[in-house]
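Fold it.
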Amino acid sequence: MEPNTIIAVVLGILEGLTEFIPVSSTGHVLLAGHFMGFVSPGRAFEVVIQLGAVLAILAVYAERLWQIFSTAPRDPQSRRFIAAVLLAFMPAVVLGVLAHDVIKTILFETPVLIATMLVLGGIVILYVDRWATNPAYHRAEDFPLAMAFKIGVIQCLAMIPGVSRSGATIVGALLLGADKRSAAEFSFFLSIPTMLGAFAYDLYKNRDVLDGAALGNIAIGFVCAMITAIFVVRWLLGYVSKQGYALFGWWRIIIGSLVLLALAAGM
């Protein structure tokens, strides 16, 4: 097996493990790639394999998604939930298109920034996890449209690698009155249009630099991410409902601090 193929497997598994927990999958994949010497054309690998994680959501929530969309023509609540997710998605569309080149060419290439964001985000998660103790919303379908839009605005912070898309949306939902389970579920549903959009736009932007080898590595990482993410999604809701998010806050702080020490040592 070629070295880059092995790395693609490792990074795909890492993507699946970290996409839906608030630790920044992109940050972990970029940092792991940095230390393993892996560079993908246009950084497309790191973005496109996230679609594998989206397919995990579609697989796990197929029945619930079918119920929502099939009842939308006659059920106002289903229509409102679809509108809430799309409304939360819109800020990322606008900022993602405007800032795409800066994000990919500057922010993605700054390991110190990524590690620092891991640490700072970990501190925020520890604080919010302890502070958000009186939730007003216990179902993702009940989030008001204004609340969904605010979560979408907060999600834009995740364009800084190391912040975490799921972390930003979960923290935003908790601060706005969601309980821990519904915050994670809304983050799951919001990931579908967000990551589909990022996949399509990034593939279009990098269409001229992707060769057969790059596409092969993306396919390998994609499959590994999907399989791994299915297990994580099934586990996560039960865990955070009982234990909260403190584990992930400490995880971020420890990993980010170790990376900063390694970078300071010239690694």
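The chain has a mean pLDDT of 87.
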